[in-house]
Write a structure and sequence with these properties.
127 residues, alpha/beta, five-stranded parallel β-sheet, 4 helices
Length: 127
């Protein structure tokens, strides 16, 4: 999983939370750095801040989706009206402050859905 946030303290907090939950995390301090990593590696999910100085989370999401159309993307923002700024309804929105459990549940669910969608038909579970 790739986490991008220009707030160093929040970046460390989210990365640690996800790592303690057993997830592999690469943390970068900007959306531009995240896009560079996405160009060179595969990730199960991207979590990014909505408003970043050099590139917004939605701009990063659009570029990431060109590289991997099925990539789950979570956008985090401290602005309560941030969700209204997101035109792409396939993006997941999390408002700060957030519950650690709620964030973990969302991330796990999205990674599980991605794994199910990419599994061969013979291995998919029927619900």
């Amino acid at each position: 999983m790739l986490v991008a946030d220009d707030d160093a303290q929040l970046l460390r907090l989210i990365a640690r939370l996800l790592r303690v939950a057993g997830m592999e995390v690469e943390a970068v301090a900007s959306a531009r750095a995240a896009l560079e990593r996405l160009s060179n590696a595969k990730f199960d999910l991207v979590l990014s801040d909505l408003f970043a100085p050099e590139m917004s989370g939605t701009t990063l999401a659009a570029a990431a989706r060109r590289l991997d159309p099925a990539l789950p993307i979570v956008i985090v923002s401290g602005h309560p009206d941030g969700q209204g700024a997101i035109e792409d309804r396939s993006l997941q929105f999390v408002c700060k402050p957030f519950s650690n459990d709620a964030l973990l549940d969302l991330v796990r669910e999205l990674i599980e859905l991605r794994a199910e969608r990419s599994a061969p038909l013979s291995r998919r579970s029927v619900r």
